[in-house]
Write a structure and sequence with these properties.
alpha/beta; Purple Acid Phosphatase, chain A, domain 2; six-stranded mixed beta sheet; 247 residues
């Protein structure tokens, strides 16, 4: 069930759900801060939905985010970047040749850190059967290539309309009964005999951590909401230190 092993290094950074758009450019500034040495790390985990809409086959989205794409590619030649695709950003490998891109079909992925085993994903791989069917359809490359052609014929009105709607969405809601929802959700991980210490994901934008027996569930904050990222460290235990940017 679980895919290839990653090795997390001390001081690695995790950032999730930046939902970058023309009104929210904090993600671009975050990448610049790493590139310029203001934020120091040699390993960066992007946990999905870093853009409001970035799709490998939809060329207008590449133009729309050209500045951030270029900065991410520039940074990927200096540090290791692992990008877990989300439900707003997928089919990305050709856009980011030096980034290790993890599609939904390879999530969750096992990782090790300081003798502990973590499962990493964006967080939408094990939703309802209806959602999983939808997720498969919207990633179909032939369908997306056809939609891209249609978008071009309509002078990019389809892409522009979707991006405008995304900019207007309020994405910082608190999830009622989130603990109970997660308790039920992690049963789908089918951990069985595997020794898993942490399950880490974004997607829900809740910035919460729960303990279920010996298992820790970590839901990352949405960077779009809180302007925060996480630095993983180990002293006597694994800690995800939350760091707030200046915005």
């Amino acid at each position: 069930m679980f895919h290839n092993m990653l090795v997390i290094r001390e001081g690695a950074l995790f950032i999730s759900d930046a939902h970058d758009n023309v009104t929210r450019e904090a993600f671009y500034r975050f990448l610049c801060a790493i590139d310029e040495g203001e934020i120091v790390t040699d390993q960066l985990f992007l946990m999905g939905d870093m853009f409001d809409l970035l799709v490998g086959q939809i060329t207008y989205t590449h133009l729309h985010y050209a500045k951030t794409i270029d900065k991410l590619n520039q940074l990927s030649r200096k540090i290791e970047i692992i990008y877990f695709e989300g439900n707003h950003d997928f089919n990305l490998q050709k856009l980011f040749p030096d980034v290790r891109v993890i599609p939904i079909t390879q999530q969750p992925m096992k990782a090790t850190f300081a003798g502990h085993t973590l499962l990493l994903s964006h967080g939408d791989w094990n939703e309802t059967p209806t959602y999983r069917l939808y997720a498969k359809i919207i990633r179909n490359r032939l369908l997306l290539s056809f939609l891209n052609l249609l978008d071009k014929l309509q002078n990019r009105q389809i892409s522009q309309s979707i991006l405008k709607k995304q900019q207007q969405k309020y994405i910082c809601m608190k999830f009622r009964n989130f603990h109970d929802y997660i308790k039920q959700k992690i049963q789908k991980y089918d951990i069985g005999a595997s020794k898993i210490d942490f399950i880490c994901e974004g997607h829900h934008h809740q910035n919460r951590e729960f303990c279920f027996d010996q298992l820790v569930y970590k839901n990352f904050s949405s960077f779009a909401c809180d302007k925060s990222y996480y630095r993983i460290t180990f002293t006597d235990r694994v800690v995800f230190e939350e760091v707030h940017t200046r915005g």
